[in-house]
Amino acid sequence: xxxxxxxxxxxxxxxxxALFYALSHPEVEVIGITTVFGNVPIDISTNNAYILIEKSExxxxxxxxxxxxxxxxxxxxxxxxxxxxxxxxxxHARPENIKDNIEASDFIIDRAYRYPREIxxxxxxxxxxxxxxxxxxxxxxxxxxxxxxxxxxxxAGGNISPVAEANIYNDPEAAEIVFKSKIPITMxxxxxxxxxxxxxxxxxxxxxxxxxxxxxLQDISSFYVKFYKETKNxxxxxxxxxxAAIAFTNPEFFIFKKGKVFVSxxxxxxxxxxxxxxxxxxxxxxxxxxxxxxxxxxxQSKKVINKFLEIAEKxxx
Length: 317
Ligand code: RIB
Ligand code: CA
Prior knowledge:
With 317 residues, the chain is α/β, with parallel strands linked by helices. It has helices spanning 13-24, 42-55, 79-82, 104-114, 128-136, 166-170, 172-180, 190-193, 200-208, 212-232, 240-249, 301-315; strands spanning 3-9, 28-35, 62-64, 119-123, 144-150, 185-188, 197-199, 236-238, 254-263, 273-277, 293-299.
């Protein structure tokens, strides 16, 4: 039986790996891709989603979403990580199949009512589209089955600031709305994504597969890998968004703890995820009705990478 997924993304190189994984997984049915600003401005991230469906030979519709955070102006886009085009400067021609679809949050609302308690969202960019869904229709939280979020950090510090992970930092008000909602949430933050590395030899292996996707993923990742080499002296890259997609299909590779997640909107700590673990005694307990969510604390990294390589070999086109 296939599981219905809406894939919310800001492609982005690691987003591309995650999307290819979800699109090819035999038990996952991606019913739509929603785009958001983040790694690049919204027009580029939406173009990239079209490029990715073309390259993965999928027939899935793309729905353009938020161009900026809920309450703030856009910040600087990390072109030095993902390239000017968001896909490692491959400079792919503008895709021809771009359609004028309904807005991303309207699409999510429509499908949530069409398939009540069946829709899972994998969200690997800023959470603005999901917050827009909740703001437009607060009752919807009862019929969305789950959200798996790549974002936040518990004990791992930050990547965009000393304390904040980029997706949450990019729209902290939106993230707070989502973490406060009653939707069942799984958070895949830096505590686990900083433990999963895609190495140069994994990328070489992908390129050797008898499909076009592996070579494409190699092409887009060389810019990203160069960034990791130059700034962190790593021989490969973190596998952020794909780790979240794999947590969705294979939660048994992870250890989760339950907790309430709060998002800082303060200047210095903007986007920090502050977690009150349910099993822990806190001297200053937080008086807040929000639900405990699943927060990934540990990961079996090798299993995550091997699962990606297995799906790539067996099913990617
Ligand atoms: O912090 C990692 C996240 O930020 C990933 O989703 C990556 O694509 C960037 O958006
Ligand atoms: Ca992303």
